Structures are given as C-alpha cells and as structure tokens.
Amino acid sequence: MTQRRDRREILKLVGVGGGVVFASSLLGMRQADGKGEKKEAKSGPGGKPGEDFFFLQVTDTHWGFSNPAVNPESGSTLKRIVGAIKESKEKPDFVIFTGDLTHTTDDDAERRKRMSEFKEIVKELEGLDVKYIPGEHDASLDKGQAFIEAFGETHGSFDHKGVHFLRIDNVSDPSAIVGEDQIAWIKKDLAKIDAETPVVVFTHRPLFDLYPQWDWATKDGAKVVDALSAHEYVTVFYGHIHQENHHTTGKIEHHSARSAMFPLPAPGSVPKKAPVPWDAAHPFQGIGYRRIEPRAGDAAKRVVELDVPKS
User: What does pTM read for this prediction?
Assistant: First the structure.
C-alpha cells in the first residue's frame, strides 16, 4: 500500500476535524498576499528540512476530570484517542502531549495517582516516541515536582529531520512565567543552531497576551518571543485555551489546539470562563487533537485537526 493511501486511511480512521491550516514557517516558507513564498531553510542537526515526517499533538486531556454535563465520556476520551493512534497503520515520528495531562487536585497523593493512571493509558503507545510538557493543572501547585517524578524534566530540546524542537515550561511557576533561568537556557540552546534552521516550539500557555483576564497569557512571554525572533522560521504549538486559535507575532506563528477533554468559549465571549456544555446531538464537538506535517509539497495538510473517534 502506498504512503499516500495510508495517509487517507488514517484520516478516515480518526476523522478529520475542524479544519486544515498551512503553517508556513515549518519548512522555510512564508505566506505573502495569500501565496506561499518558498525560501531555502538551512538544515538543522538530524536531517534535511523538508524530509517526510509527521507528529501528533494532544493537549489538555485533563485525566481525572468528571462532570457529565461537560463530558459524560470523560473516562474514555483519552483512551479513544490513544486507541486510534495505536490502531492506525501510519505511525507518527513522535506524539507530544502539551500539558494539563491531568486535572488539578490539591491532594498530592491524588495528583500522583492521576499521573500514574495517565501513564498506564498512554503505555498503549509502546513503541512510539512520546513526549510531554506540563500544564498548570499538573504543575503549578507543587512547582512541577510530581510531573518531574512521572515524566522527567519540564523543558528541553531535540532535533529531528532538520527541525529544531523546544519544549518550554510556562506553568510550573505559579505566577505564570517562564523565568529568567529558563529564558537564558532558551537563548543558549538557540545559539547552537543556524538562524535559518526551522524551529518548532511546544508550550502550554500562549506566549502572547491572548486574553490575560482568563489567564490566557504568559507574563514574561514577550521575552521568550524576543529570543525566538532572532530565528527566521519559528512555529509555536500550544494548548491551554481548549480551542483553535491562529496568531502571528512578527515572523512567529502561534497555533493552539483543541482540548482532548472539553472546549472553552472564545476569548471574552462570555462574562465568565467555563467549559462549553456537552451537546448530545453532536458528541465530542469541539474536542480533538492534531496531526502536524513539516513536509514539502503537501501544504494543504500541514496542520490537520482530528476528531475524537465516536466508537
């Protein structure tokens, strides 16, 4: 079976969701007047830009959340997504969970129990490269201690097929900052690669002021954006706001993903932030995950939103 046919199969299996976005920075592309203007990005360590691969972003799974009015399938939603990934014939190069793996609890023992249960479910992806960053539900009450015990360091970097990836922690500090030490590390890490090597950033909160009234911001995010701006092609993927949002700061593209547990309303659209109620006529509406393809030639499927399987 050809690779193109496999791609159609996986999209049919998991269900194409809200839409398709062209993330122009992923491979040294710029959009001008609605058209892609290709520029030659330089290769980073580990391969050439434009090599054929894809990864999956899953965010805000909130394992431990329970509210039938919001998601009566809360005990199976994560399992459905993991099952779809496991059963698909085309495997991602890696899967990244971008925070709020578990739902917040003041009980330290319960927090660790939820993380252990989450790990047990995700263990079904054995054989795949699975990566994590924390969300504030995982880390803000104990400065990331339980997360580190379960999943390792809250931030880091790696290279894959010509793209440099950063995992940034903007949640372990309860004041919603990245912090000077981590910003210094980001600058040092980026100094090792060419300014035209594509950079992909994973973080939980947005790095810009999307809607600070609802904690949809990072207080020192402008410093991070400034450090990233020295590089020509930067794309940021984040979670936290439980919906798609696409924004640009200078040359940097920011793409949020839908939650894998429940949607939230559009920024400022209601007086008080609260989960959108479950619609029995349209189960799992507004819930999902995404496939990201840093690949040349197939721009229409650069970022594909995927639905939670209904059965």
Answer: 0.89
